[in-house]
Design brief:
Elements lengths: L5 E6 L3 E6 L12 E6 L1 H12 L3 E4 L2 E2 L2 H13 L8 E2 L5 E5 L9 E4 L10 H5 L6 E7 L8 H15 L2 E5 L10 H11 L5 E5 H7 L7 E4 L2 E7 L3 H10 L4 E5 L5 E5 L5 E3 L12 H14 L4 H15 L12 H10 L4
Parallel strand pairs: 1-4, 1-9, 2-7, 5-6, 9-10, 10-11, 11-14
Antiparallel strand pairs: 2-3, 7-8, 12-13, 14-15, 15-16
Length: 337
């Protein structure tokens, strides 16, 4: 059997990210922004490429200068872009972010008529699903059609081809008409997933059915508080298909939950936080790299934690993902794996 052309294919959103250069100022006082590239699967493709994996991205952009901007960056990074369609009826999406360390990062998505949500089954059929070692997709893909069915179809095809299927739970409440709908779609996808990754809140949201478990603030669903039994939620996710669930816990690191066996706590690397956006995607890139190297769960997650720790000290997401040599030096300086 011939070796797959790509180590990793990621699928989902892409955007131009406008990050405040007036760090520490309230959002209403921002006067300057820097332009980067973002979107969870896009960040992961770039991060994994910088670590040394052969990566391809299945997203979509509009026939617009923002799409040119995104593709130009990805091509410079060495991420395969030839499977990315341009949707003439839609627009490349955007994100605007304020930066007020250590814990305030107001974020606004501009995703009305976003090109990547129009990814279709035909787009998937033109992508190298059967020619990659791993396939990764994001929960936001499932928020609307035709992206939702295209993503499930892609996961089916990847599973059938023997690729390892990763899902970033990726709960963005303002992309859903109802937080419970997110849980419905995630639960539909989980039987196709080998390894799921998410925060504690995303794990709870993935099993959410009871409206009393959602606290809505300021009459908006942009930042609901999800309540529930975390241990029960972890068990339900694992019972639905994945062999492993990785729960991200911020500065504490992560805990890896195999379906069989004991949880594996993996400590993080203490750093001074500059911007938390992109840390989870950096973790995923590092973790996927480790898994594809055949490392054990602890070592793979430790590399992911190091990648995330580096990114939180930087200004943006994709543009600031670490390279293999620097992340290994970072780990070595802090006592190794």
């Amino acid at each position: 059997m011939s070796k797959p052309t790509y180590d990793l294919l990621t699928m989902g959103r892409s955007s131009i990210d406008l990050y405040s250069l007036d760090v520490g100022k309230p959002f209403v006082e921002i006067t300057r922004f820097a332009a980067y590239v973002g979107g969870s699967p896009t960040n992961i493709a770039v991060g994994a490429r910088r670590l040394g994996l052969r990566t391809a991205l299945l997203t979509a952009v509009g026939e617009d200068p923002v799409g040119d901007f995104i593709l130009h960056f990805l091509e410079k990074e060495g991420v395969e872009t030839r499977f990315i369609p341009r949707k003439s009826h839609a627009r490349s999406s955007a994100v605007v972010l304020g930066i007020e360390p250590p814990d305030k990062f107001p974020l606004v998505f501009y995703r009305d008529n976003a090109a990547d949500i129009y990814l279709t089954i035909d787009d998937v059929l033109r992508a190298p699903i059967a020619d990659c070692r791993a396939f990764e997709f994001a929960g936001t893909n499932l928020s609307r059609e035709p992206s939702a069915s295209a993503t499930l179809f892609a996961a089916e095809q990847a599973k059938r081809a023997g690729a390892t299927v990763f899902m970033d739970l990726d709960f963005r409440a303002d992309q859903w008409h109802d937080p419970r709908a997110y849980g419905v779609m995630v639960r539909a996808a989980l039987p196709l997933v080998d390894i799921a990754i998410g925060t504690e809140e995303e794990v709870l949201a993935a099993v959410l059915q009871d409206p009393s478990q959602v606290a809505i603030h300021d009459a908006t669903i942009t930042a609901p508080e999800i309540r529930g039994d975390l241990n029960a939620a972890i068990r339900e996710i694992l019972d639905r298909g994945p062999q492993v669930l990785v729960v991200k816990q911020g500065a504490k690191g992560v805990t890896v939950y195999p379906r069989e066996g004991e949880p594996i706590p993996v400590p993080g690397f203490p750093v001074e936080v500059y911007n938390v956006l992109g840390a989870g995607d950096a973790f995923a890139a590092g973790f996927i790299f480790g898994v594809l190297q055949g490392w054990d769960w602890y070592k793979a997650a430790r590399l992911g934690n190091a990648c995330g720790a580096i990114v939180v000290t930087r200004h943006g997401c994709a543009n600031f993902m670490p390279y293999y040599e620097e992340v290994m030096a970072f780990i070595e300086e802090r006592g190794g794996f």
